[in-house]
């Protein structure tokens, strides 16, 4: 099974906020979902799903829920993205954590092209930005050596606190940023990129998370995202 996840390292980026964009909706999840739930997402107007494949619990571990989630989402025709929430305070290196995720997917014959690395919740990271960057670079180098592209899920505040706003060194690195005013529908911000401002070397946004912990299809705790609908081709985000 091959998941085409943002192939070619987003060689053509989503247009900046000033351009006319027809936005499509996505959800991101970190728990097991049934096939009927993914089907409900699809019928409710969502075009893609971001699925967690690495769990930061304890010292970090492969999220086995990802296997069925990926297959169910893929079979429903949803664009399927993978993200990892690493555990930076673990005795395991970033490379080891990435390999645990990669091998867990590969063992089940799931091949990925891109992984999004979550860089949020500064309280869960150390205070030494150089060590934090070394940890992230360890993940990125290992991913790239495995033929996997790397994007980041973060925002200006998280990136500043965790990396001291160190610019990303790889050109055209994709960004999935978040901006909400709290949990639930009342905390949602506009479903567009109009609030995006460049930071940390990220000049453009690819995806925005605009809602957190909302209830969709009877599932509580789902997050909502938007991306350019023009980039969705045959159930795959191609940008």
Automatic annotation (TrEMBL):
Keyword Membrane attributed: no
PANTHER family: LYSOZYME PROTEIN (PTHR23208), LYSOZYME-RELATED (PTHR23208:SF36)
InterPro entries with a match to the protein in the record: GH, GH25_Enzymes, Glyco_hydro_25
Keywords of this entry: Signal
Species of provenance: Cylicocyclus nassatus
Signal peptide coordinates: 1-19
Organism ancestry: Eukaryota, Metazoa, Ecdysozoa, Nematoda, Chromadorea
Protein name (database record): Lysozyme
Similarity-based family: Belongs to the glycosyl hydrolase 25 family.
GO MF annotation terms: lysozyme activity
One BP annotation, GO: cell wall macromolecule catabolic process
Keyword DNA-binding: no
